[in-house]
Amino acid sequence: MTKLHLAVTALLACSLAAVEALDRDKMLDVVGTVHGNRHIIVHYDDLEEDREERKCYGDFTRDIDPVCGSNGKKYINMSMFNYRKCMIKIQEGTEIQVVDMDFCKDAEMEDMEHIDE
């Protein structure tokens, strides 16, 4: 009997609560305002981004001579740092610089994160 009593109490509490989130007119107002604005234009040219990214490719070396980026990530060598610096500038619009290795003392190599040991 207590389960039934609890269920009835919960049902009653839910039915008496004022829930504005379920008001269809208010939801339609929000959707209409956000999605009905024809002056919002989104332009993305992935071919242009691909062309820009190709400029980042260069001669990569296998030398292990770590460098630290101002983004707190450690790179295996200067050629990999320069590649990632170029890609980050294109993709995120930010520039990174080489900084002292102490800044990255606890960081893993950025280009080794995906490798399971």
Automatic annotation (TrEMBL):
<feature type="signal peptide">
    <location>
        <begin position="1"/>
        <end position="21"/>
    </location>
</feature>
<dbReference type="InterPro" id="IPR036058">
    <property type="entry name" value="Kazal_dom_sf"/>
</dbReference>
<dbReference type="InterPro" id="IPR002350">
    <property type="entry name" value="Kazal_dom"/>
</dbReference>
<dbReference type="Pfam" id="PF00050">
    <property type="entry name" value="Kazal_1"/>
</dbReference>
<keyword id="KW-0732">Signal</keyword>
<feature type="domain" description="Kazal-like">
    <location>
        <begin position="50"/>
        <end position="106"/>
    </location>
</feature>
<protein>
    <submittedName>
        <fullName>Unnamed protein product</fullName>
    </submittedName>
</protein>
